[in-house]
Specification:
Radius of gyration of chain A: 19 Å
Oligomer: heterodimer
Distance between the termini of chain B: 33 Å
Distance between the termini of chain A: 28 Å
Structural class of chain A: alpha/beta
Shape of chain B: globular
CATH topology of the largest domain in chain B: ABC transporter involved in vitamin B12 uptake, BtuC
Helix content of chain B: over 70%
Largest interface: A-B, 51 and 44 residues
Number of helices of chain B: 14
CATH architecture of the largest domain in chain B: Orthogonal Bundle
CATH class of the largest domain in chain B: Mainly Alpha
Order of helices and strands of chain B: HHHHHEHHHHEHHHHH
Strand content of chain A: 15-25%
C-alpha cells in the first residue's frame, strides 16, 4: 500500500454550539480516488473547506505528505499542491475561458506582485491555460465569455481552473452537481482520466458515479468518519446502511 | 487594443476594458501641455490654476479609482489620505522644510503608511462595514486635525509660499501648472503600468470573484492591502499638490464630504475605467465652476446634472464608448458575442 498523502487527525470545527466536524480521522493514499459520502448535513462541505484552508480548524491536525498544514492559509496550501473545486460554480463569468485559466496559471507562476513588469511575454500563461483547456475539452471555446457557456461547460471549466493550478491533491466538491446524464458521464470519464497524475478526494451525491470511480470510500456521519474502505466493503457495511436508512432510503437503494 | 492574452478579440472583458490606447494618452498629454500656454496668451491666467486644480483632483479621483473601481474596495475615507498629504507638506513648510523633493515624498509616504494601517484593519470587513470603517477612520483624522492647535485647529495651516524646486519657480500659475502636470503625469504613467500589470489583472479578478481567486492560490488580502496602500499614497500626492495650490490646508480637506466628492467623480467618470477618475473630476469641477458663476443655488443644479449623467450612463461616462458601439452594432461589446457563443455552444452539442 502506498503512503498516505493526506492524514486528518482528530479534526474539529465548531459553529457556535454545533460541532460540524467532530474529531474526524481520515487517511488519503497517494494516487487514489477517494470518495467522501454521507447524508445531507454530515459535514462533507465543512471538512472540504477545512482541508482547502477556507475554514480554520478549532483543533486537530492535517498532515500533507507528513507535514503539518493545519494553520497554512489557502494560497500556501495551493502552492503545496492542494486545490479545490466548488459545488456551486465559482468562476469569473464576465471573463473569457482563456482569461479564467490564465489567472489560475498566473497564481502558480507568481509575479502577481510584479507591479510594473512588462506584459509583453504571456506565452507561459497561454501555454498553461491551453493545456488545462485541452484537458477538460474547452480548447475551442477559449475566447468565449464564461457567463455565456452552458452549465455543463462551466462545470468542466470549474474543474479546469483547479487543474491549471497543477494540484497533486484535488478536492472535488460535487463535480456532477446539476449536470444532465450525458454531461455527468463526460465528467466521470474526465475524473477517471485524472487518476494517473492526481490524488482525488471526491465529494459526490451521485452514488453510481461514486462506486464506479472510487478506489476507496469514506462515509461521514455527524462530522466523523464511520467507515472507510473499498466500495464493496462500504456497500455492505451495516453501520453505513443504518446511517443512510435513517436519512434517505433511496440513497440506500442506489447503493445496493 | 492589444490583448494581453494572445490573439486579439472583438470583446473587451473587465480585465482589459477602459485601458487607453497609446495615441489617446499622447493626445491628452499634448493638449494638457499646450493648454496653459494658450490660456496665458489669452490673458486668462485664472484658467491655468483651474487646470492645475482639475489635474490634482483627477489624480485624487484616479487614486480612489484604483481601490474602488479596480479593487472593488468601496472606501468612503479617501479624504483622509488627501488631507494627510496636505498636512504633511504644510507642517514641513511650517518647520522650515520647503524643498519639494523632501516634502512631496514625505507626504506620499505618510499617506501610504496611513492607508496601509487603515487598510489592514478595514479589509478584514466586507461590504457596508468596509464603507463605514473607512469613513470612521477618516473622521478620526478630521477630529485630530481640528483638535490640535499646533496644526491650526479649525482654521487649518496656511503656507507662506509653495514648495521649492531649484530652477523652477512655482509661485506663478504657469510654473506651478507644469509642476503639477509632470508630477501627476508621472503618477498616471505609474497607475497605467499598475492596472495593466499582472498585479492589476489579479486585482480586477479579485473584484470579480474573490473566493475563486483565493481558491486558485492568490494571497487575496495582501494583494488588496497593497492596492489600498498604493491608492492612499497617490491620494497623498494629490493632497500635497492641493496644499501647494491653495497655499495651505484646512480640516475641510479631511471631511467625509470630500471623500464623497471623490467618489462621485469616480462614479460619473466610470469606475474601473482608466480615464474614469480623470473624466469625472474634470466634469465635476467644470460644472461646479460654470454653474456657481451664474447662480447661488449651484449645488442644486449640479446635483440635478450629476443625477442626469448617472441616469444616462450608470457605469460612468467612459462606459458610453462601448454602449455607443453596441448600439451601432459595429464592434459588439459583449451582447453580440454572447449570442454567438451560445449559438456555438449549441452547435457543438
Amino acid at each position: 500500500m502506498s503512503q498516505p498523502i493526506l492524514q486528518v487527525d482528530q479534526l474539529v470545527k465548531r459553529f457556535g454550539g454545533l460541532v460540524a466536524t467532530d474529531h474526524c480521522n481520515l487517511e488519503i493514499r497517494a494516487g487514489e480516488v477517494h470518495a467522501l459520502i454521507g447524508p445531507n448535513g454530515a459535514g462533507k462541505t465543512t471538512l472540504l473547506a477545512q482541508l482547502s484552508g477556507e475554514l480554520a480548524s478549532d483543533s486537530g491536525r492535517i498532515l500533507f505528505e507528513g507535514r503539518d498544514i493545519t494553520r497554512l492559509p489557502i494560497h500556501k496550501r495551493v502552492a503545496e499542491g492542494i486545490v479545490r473545486s466548488f459545488q456551486i460554480t465559482t468562476l469569473l463569468p464576465r471573463l473569457t475561458v482563456r482569461e479564467n485559466l490564465a489567472l489560475a496559471v498566473q497564481a502558480r507562476t507568481g509575479h502577481s506582485f510584479d507591479f510594473l513588469g512588462t506584459v509583453a511575454d504571456e506565452s507561459d500563461l497561454d501555454e498553461g491555460a491551453e493545456e488545462a483547456a485541452r484537458r477538460v475539452g474547452l480548447l475551442d471555446l477559449m475566447e468565449h465569455i464564461v457567463g455565456t457557456l452552458s452549465h455543463g461547460r462551466q462545470r468542466a471549466l470549474e474543474l479546469g481552473m483547479a487543474l491549471a493550478c497543477k494540484p497533486r491533491l484535488l478536492l472535488l466538491d460535487e463535480p456532477m452537481a446539476g449536470t444532465d446524464p450525458e454531461e455527468s458521464k463526460k465528467m466521470g470519464d474526465l475524473i477517471n482520466s485524472l487518476r494517473e497524475e492526481h490524488t482525488l478526494i471526491l465529494v459526490e451525491h451521485d452514488m453510481d458515479a461514486v462506486f464506479r470511480l472510487a478506489d476507496r470510500v469514506s462515509v461521514l456521519v455527524a462530522g466523523h468518519v464511520i467507515a472507510s474502505g473499498q466500495p464493496d466493503e462500504i456497500r455492505n457495511d451495516p453501520q453505513v446502511i443504518a446511517a443512510y436508512l435513517g436519512e434517505d432510503e433511496t440513497a440506500t437503494e442506489n447503493m445496493q | 487594443m492589444i490583448s494581453r492574452f494572445g490573439p486579439s478579440r472583438s470583446t473587451e472583458t473587465p480585465l482589459l476594458i477602459g485601458l487607453p490606447g497609446p495615441w489617446t494618452a499622447i493626445a491628452v498629454a499634448v493638449i494638457l501641455a499646450i493648454y496653459p500656454l494658450v490660456m496665458n496668451s489669452m490673458g486668462e491666467d485664472f484658467y491655468i490654476s483651474m487646470g492645475s486644480r482639475v489635474l490634482i483632483l483627477a489624480l485624487a479621483a484616479s487614486a480612489l479609482n484604483l481601490a474602488l473601481g479596480y479593487g472593488g474596495m468601496i472606501s468612503l475615507g479617501h479624504a483622509a489620505f488627501l488631507g494627510i498629504g496636505g498636512y504633511a507638506v504644510a507642517i514641513l513648510a511650517k518647520s522650515g522644510i520647503d524643498a519639494a523633493w523632501i516634502a512631496v515624498p514625505v507626504a506620499v509616504g505618510c499617506a501610504a503608511a496611513a492607508a496601509c494601517l487603515i487598510g489592514a484593519i478595514s479589509l478584514r470587513t466586507r461590504g457596508v462595514y468596509f464603507i463605514m470603517i473607512t469613513l470612521a477612520f477618516a473622521q478620526l483624522f478630521y477630529y485630530l486635525a481640528i483638535s490640535l492647535p499646533q496644526f491650526g485647529g479649525d482654521d487649518g495651516l496656511p503656507m507662506t509660499a509653495r514648495s521649492v524646486i531649484p530652477g523652477l519657480p512655482l509661485d506663478g500659475d504657469l510654473g506651478f501648472y507644469y509642476f503639477v502636470y509632470f508630477t501627476a503625469g508621472l503618477a498616471f504613467v505609474l497607475l497605467y503600468r499598475l492596472v495593466s500589470s499582472r498585479f492589476g489583472r489579479a486585482l480586477v479578478a479579485i473584484r470579480e470573484n474573490e473566493r475563486r481567486m483565493a481558491a486558485i492560490g492568490y494571497p487575496v488580502y495582501r494583494l488588496k492591502l497593497m492596492a489600498f496602500t498604493l491608492s492612499g499614497g497617490l491620494a497623498g500626492l494629490a493632497g500635497a499638490l492641493l496644499a501647494n495650490l491653495s497655499l495651505g490646508v484646512t480640516p475641510h480637506t479631511l471631511t467625509w464630504h470630500q471623500s464623497g466628492i471623490l467618489m462621485v467623480m469616480v462614479i460619473i467618470g466610470g469606475s474601473g475605467y482608466f480615464w474614469g477618475g480623470i473624466t469625472g473630476a474634470a466634469i465635476f469641477l467644470l460644472l461646479e465652476e460654470t454653474i456657481s458663476a451664474h447662480t447661488e443655488h449651484w449645488n442644486l443644479v449640479l446635483g440635478a446634472l450629476l443625477l442626469f449623467i448617472v441616469l444616462v450612463a450608470p457605469d460612468g461616462v467612459m462606459s458610453l464608448r462601448e454602449r455607443v458601439r453596441a448600439l451601432l452594432g459595429r464592434k459588439p461589446a459583449g451582447g453580440a458575442e454572447a449570442q454567438s457563443s451560445i449559438a456555438a455552444g449549441e452547435k457543438a452539442q
